[in-house]
Design goal:
The protein has 140 residues and is mainly alpha-helical. The protein contains eight helices and two strands. The protein has a two-stranded antiparallel ribbon with strand order 1-2.
């Protein structure tokens, strides 16, 4: 999923429906759900699902003569991939660090607590700066 292209509005709506479903869905099921809110052709939904499959966002599951579609990963993974992609686009280590600091500065207290918890769960070697690790290795 890494490097996944950003999704358009209709692709996002389709994915929201897939993520909220209890199992793989048909084109008809997605069309019926989305057509309640907007004027949408069945073939448009079929094209969107085909495009999402080509982007490896959904996978096709054979069901008799038809296909059902399911998400390749959960919404949290997809958002994390998009965040990683954005961070990778920041350029140098200094720019990446500055972007992370800004991101943390704008975090809600709940988001900051989740970040602290995630960082605390990393192994100590993963949290030390690479230069410190290299220095230790050269001492031996």
């Amino acid at each position: 999923m890494a490097g996944m292209a950003r999704l358009g509005n209709l692709e996002r709506e389709v994915m929201e429906h897939i993520w909220s479903s209890t199992g793989p869905v048909t084109v008809r099921e997605v069309h019926e759900a989305l057509a309640r809110e907007r004027d949408l052709a069945y073939t448009t939904v079929m094209t969107v699902l085909d495009r999402l499959a080509k982007k490896s966002v959904v996978r096709r599951v054979r069901d008799g003569r038809a296909y059902r579609y399911e998400a390749v990963a959960g919404k949290d993974q997809m958002v994390a991939d998009l965040m990683r992609e954005a961070l990778d686009g920041a350029g140098s280590d200094a720019h990446r660090a500055a972007a992370l600091v800004r991101f943390v500065d704008e975090a809600t207290p709940e988001e900051a607590a989740a970040l602290r918890e995630a960082l605390a769960g990393l192994a100590p070697a993963e949290t030390s700066p690479p230069s410190t690790s290299r220095r230790r290795a050269h001492r031996g």
